[in-house]
Amino acid sequence: MNKIKQFGLYICFDFFASAGAWLAFNQFRKTFIEAAKHGYDIPIVFDAKLILTLLLIPTFWLIIYTASGFYQNIFRRSRLRDTQNTFLTSVFGVLVLFFSIFLDDSVSNYSDYYYSLFGYFFLHFFLTLFFRIILSTRTIRKIQRKEWGYESVLIGSGKNAHKLYHELQNAKKSEGFDLKGFLTEDENPDATLNGLPNLGHWKNIAAVIEDLNIKDVILCMDEEYHTRVMETVDVIQNQNVKLKIMPDSYGMVMGMVKMNNILGAMLVEVDFEVMPQWQKTIKRSFDLLSSAVALLLLSPLFLLLAIWVKLDSKGRVFFTQERIGFQGKPFQIIKFRSMRSDAETKGPQLSNEHDDRRTKAGIFLRKTRLDELPQFWNVLVGDMSIVGPRPERQFFIDQIVQKAPIYTRLHRIKPGITSWGQVKFGYASNVNEMVERMKYDILYLENMSLGLDVKICIYTALIMIQGRGK
């Protein structure tokens, strides 16, 4: 499967479909709308204005499609989902163009506006959908004929695994699973599964995914191992793979599954997505815009704080430290230094309200949370978001996970400068408090929305003004 070629085909088809729809709409507008007003036929003229719109309008539509997430997972196509996506994005895009362009048209009566609106919608929707269905059908048939497939691995070696393997192998049409091997529920190097390679214990799944470039993981443990289902899900959730499970494990992950196949093997997919793609696009756009503006407008404040930190105590102005971020990947967080340079000579430590390691400037910076301002750079480069669970060090994560394994779910989203846990609980001074704060962040994870992000930002601003940090 050539991802670049497939992506290029969708881009080209969508571009020319939207350009064709726009050209056909202009012909419709000249023939019916403007001709009715002036009383004579008006020919379409390929002037500079029309040619420019034939470039700009399709570009507008490509941006809309990208924001909606249509070009993600371009080999996992469903004609029904493609139809739904095309319809919804067409409605949104046509309305945007109607209120920004069509209302400037000179018409003989107001009903012509409705003719323009619905005429352009149907032209754009059906022409775009026509080419998309052709590409999706081509993709689906290549997968069904086993010409294309996703590198896959089974977790399980008992009767469920054998049953599923035979069902997949005997299916008249392939579901796209290119099985590379299986992992056992327990450490049994002698386990076999119809000639598939034994890849070891299921806890090795992260290494197997990286080594074999796995795209799909199929969980089919026997009933006696169902207590490990959620543990397995927690391990896999931060890997860039699709997770399918057999239906008898459905209840173990209730609320995280979705059906995506009716005629094939009885599998359900665990859905790790926490926000619709269009909301994630808006959230990232807000992060980029707000961090760029903040770094620009607050540069005088940055300079004053930097001078204060430097004059107040010996050491660097900025403090950097490795934290764990999205999908468990480390990054360097940056802050204004608020403690003495030798604050952690005895190893990693958490701060508290009476911490004598804080400098005079640091006490004020932490109470007002101004020490966090340089993290707008982390947001700008993509390591963090404005709102998200606070990133921790691996040293403390290991201790938190021993008390609350669910903590690893927070790595499904980018960490943030501020969070629901930070607002409701504040800074944590020990691991137990970190576990308590985590509960608020898990609640945020399960209820993420743009509205909640705005509310958290407002509360954070109030905390800064009131100086209620530590």
Which sequence of SSEs, written as H and E, runs from N to C? HHHHEHEEHEHEEEHHEEHHEHEHHH
Alpha-carbon Rg, integer: 28 Å
Largest sheet: 7 strands, mixed
Provide the number of structural domains.
Answer: 3
Strands across the major sheet, in which order?
A: 3-2-1-4-5-7-6
Note the gap between the termini.
Answer: 53 Å
Mean pLDDT: 86
Overall structural class, as computed from helix and strand content, comes to: alpha/beta
Number of strands: 11
Number of helices: 15
Q: Estimate the helix proportion, in percent.
A: 40-55%
* Regions with little confidence, pLDDT below 50 for 5+ residues: none
Beta fraction: 5-15%
Q: Judging from the principal axes of the Cα atoms, what is the shape? A: flat
Description:
The chain is an alpha/beta fold and 470 residues long. The protein folds into 3 domains: 3-144, no CATH class; 150-270, Rossmann fold (3-Layer(aba) Sandwich); 277-466, no CATH class. The chain is 51% helix and 11% strand. The chain contains 15 helices and 11 strands. Helix 5 (159-170) links the parallel strand 1 (150-155) and strand 2 (177-184). Helix 1 (3-38) packs across helix 2 (48-68) and helix 12 crosses helix 14 (431-446). The longest helix has 36 residues, at 3-38. The relative contact order is 0.07.
Brief write-up:
With 470 residues, the chain is α/β, with parallel strands linked by helices. It has helices at 3-38, 48-68, 79-100, 111-144, 159-170, 205-212, 229-236, 277-297, 299-312, 360-368, 375-380, 394-403, 420-424, 431-446, 450-466, and strands at 150-155, 177-184, 198-201, 216-219, 242-245, 257-258, 268-270, 318-324, 330-336, 385-387, 416-418.
